[in-house]
Amino acid sequence: MSQYSVTKEVRFCYGHRLMNHPGKCRHLHGHSVRAAVTVTSEDLNDQGMVCDFADLKSAIASFVRERLDHNLLLHESDPLVPLLRDANERFLTLSQHPTAEVLAKLIYDHVQGKGYNVIEVTLWETDSSYASYRNECNES
């Protein structure tokens, strides 16, 4: 079966730590990342597109801006959470550890929930390291 696909990239920054990591990632640190969201369709719309890149960017960027960009992402059991709450600092708690894999899935779920047929989200944590999330059930 043939399918068309388009990919939109967004960039953002976030801080996190991985409490159970045996190395330096257990300490607070930040990343400037690039995320690529790929959506697919068997047919093109009346404009000859899978979707408008601007609309896809808007669906991705609104979530990233509101939840992830310049935010501190922590596991919900992180002992820093009460201190940050008391200091009225911005942070987001997650039920899973805030890895690149988990962030890729968060973005995937959000964009899929906006009605796009997402096939994959890839998040580059560095220029040479990336993680992807793909839900094989959504592929035709």
**Mean residue pLDDT:** 95
The CATH class is Alpha Beta
Separation, N- and C-terminal Cα atoms = 8 Å
Strands side by side in the biggest sheet: 4-3-1-2-5-6
Structural class of the helix and strand makeup?
A: alpha/beta
Cα gyration radius (Å): 17 Å
**Main beta-sheet strand count, sense and barrel state:** 6 strands, mixed
Tally of domains: 1
Enumerate how many helices there are, as a single number. Answer: 3
Low-confidence stretches: none
Overall geometric form = elongated
Strand content: 35-45%
CATH superfamily: 6-pyruvoyl tetrahydropterin synthase/QueD
Count of beta strands: 6
Assign a percent range to the helix content: 25-40%
CATH architectural designation: 2-Layer Sandwich
Q: Outline of this structure?
A:
With 140 residues, this protein is of the alpha/beta class. The chain contains three helices and six strands, in the order E-E-H-E-H-E-H-E-E.
Structural summary, described in words:
This protein has 140 residues and is of the alpha/beta class. It has a single domain (4-135), classed as Tetrahydropterin Synthase, Chain A (2-Layer Sandwich). The chain has helices at 53-68, 80-86, 100-113; strands at 4-16, 29-41, 71-75, 91-94, 118-126, 129-133. The N and C termini lie close together (8 Å).
Present the secondary structure layout.
Blueprint: E1 4-16, E2 29-41, H1 53-68, E3 71-75, H2 80-86, E4 91-94, H3 100-113, E5 118-126, E6 129-133
Parallel strand pairs: 1-3, 3-4
Antiparallel strand pairs: 1-2, 2-5, 5-6
